[in-house]
Recover the amino acids of this structure.
DNA sequence: ACGATGACAATGC
DNA sequence: TGCATTGCCATCG
């Protein structure tokens, strides 16, 4: 480790800030890449966040709580990383359907996260159960 | 030095 | 919703 914080390069500093931001995401919560970047004081560096996570070191880092801004998992559906992430999130009680988080889009800001609007829209009940949609039992 | 790549995002149609 | 475009920036060949 740098004997002196002064020896730290810009890249290293960014990395450190990003890791801290990711660790700050509470269990059962999710955040977007761009969001993490902003919280880390690096607005516009979503891609950098992705790169840092892709490195995959840092044991114990809750990388699975980081999603795309639209609430979808960043990995291609079906890939090992995808399955892994979905599983971890579900283990924390996060609802996921069709590859995207339900009931809690990656909060754009901490405020939004705290405001936590109850539910965007329960959408009433399914139009239907129209004949033929019955599921097997 | 240069172009391609990538766990992305915001904007426009 | 979906697709294209542009911005970003560290790495890599």
């Amino acid at each position: 480790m740098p004997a002196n914080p002064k020896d730290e390069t810009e890249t290293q500093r960014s990395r450190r800030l990003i890791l801290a931001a990711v660790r700050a995401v509470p269990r059962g919560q999710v955040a977007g890449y761009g969001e993490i970047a902003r919280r880390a004081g690096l607005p516009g560096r979503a891609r950098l966040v992705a790169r840092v996570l892709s490195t995959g070191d840092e044991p114990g880092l809750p990388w699975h709580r980081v999603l795309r801004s639209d609430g979808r998992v960043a990995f291609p559906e079906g890939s090992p990383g995808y399955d892994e992430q979905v599983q971890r999130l579900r283990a924390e009680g996060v609802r996921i359907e069709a590859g995207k988080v339900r009931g809690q889009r990656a909060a754009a800001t901490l405020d939004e996260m705290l405001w936590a609007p109850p539910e965007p829209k329960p959408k009433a009940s399914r139009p239907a159960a129209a004949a033929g949609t019955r599921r097997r039992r």
